[in-house]
Description:
The protein is of the alpha/beta class and about 350 residues long. It is built from 15 helices and seven strands. The longest helix has about 45 residues, at about 120-165. The termini are far apart.
Amino acid sequence: MTETRDDSLASPWIDLLIVEDNPADARLIELMLAEAGGFRCRKAATLAAAVAAIAESAPDAVLLDLSLPDGCGMATIERIRAAGPQLPIVICTGLNDESMGLAALQHGCQDYLVKGQGDGHQIRHTILYAIERKGMEEERRLNADRFKRVLLQTVRSLSLTLEMRDPYTTGHQRRVAQLAAAIGRRMGLEEGRLEGLHTGGLVHDIGKINVPAEFLSRPGKLSAEIHMVIRMHPQMGWEIMHDIEFPWPVATMILQHHERLDGSGYPHGLKGDEIILEARILAVADVLEAISSHRPYRPALGLETALAELRQHSGTRYDPQVVVACIAVIEEYGPAILEDDIPVHQMPGLNS
Ligand SMILES: [Fe+2]
């Protein structure tokens, strides 16, 4: 009786693409799988033919030889993954080379087989397992994406909540987040850390939720008492956020964004490296945005005044490397970086 694939799979047949340049080897695998049952095999003798076959119709799995006329080693895996990122890949290598198999797994393959070892049933089992494993990996990835989206939406909602109480600073956190991420990118921070920096920027003033709204929008010079209450906002922000298990130090960024390199900041008068890099970047982005924008107690002072403040206190209040990166970002993008909602990853040249 012909054995068919697992009942939980949508089609009773596994559409397998065998990528193998040796016709005898390809034929042997095909015959072994015919005996095991449940497979419809297509064959490709080159990487180019495999990519074309995937484009024509995505198979359920790919059995891939690592040595082909138009590619060899890990590069073959990259090409197949580029052609079908969702495809389960089982490596079929002529070398009994454990390290090659492990390297293939690290490159995103689900399993590997050594030619001449095992029968059709074992190959079938390996391919079924690879399909199941890839399905689980995809599900995990989708769940992680979903979780990240929900987290970002929540952070944006928190950010908006504050802005609804304080209309004079509407957009301030968003603009600071955008500028901070652009500075971080210019400084070479990796993507995950940039996401954290952007997230921290979106809620860096969340502690102001604890400041009476009339203090925030009061025109004219602020009294010492009001100043004192407002200066509590980094600590308040930390209290609100520190229990949330972000994959980044968001609460510390909030707590430290008014600290200054020379110890003149608040709430703890931290110095130098005691202040995390993200907070040093947020500090510069925050000052630049705040000085160049309108505030209820004073008109906008403009970008030039903001840059002069940064230059004057670079190395004392502000991290000089962050100031250099900030000036470079402003030189490249001008005031648009503070006016438009540009997705930072779409900005050309920030990595250069
Ligand atoms: Fe602040």
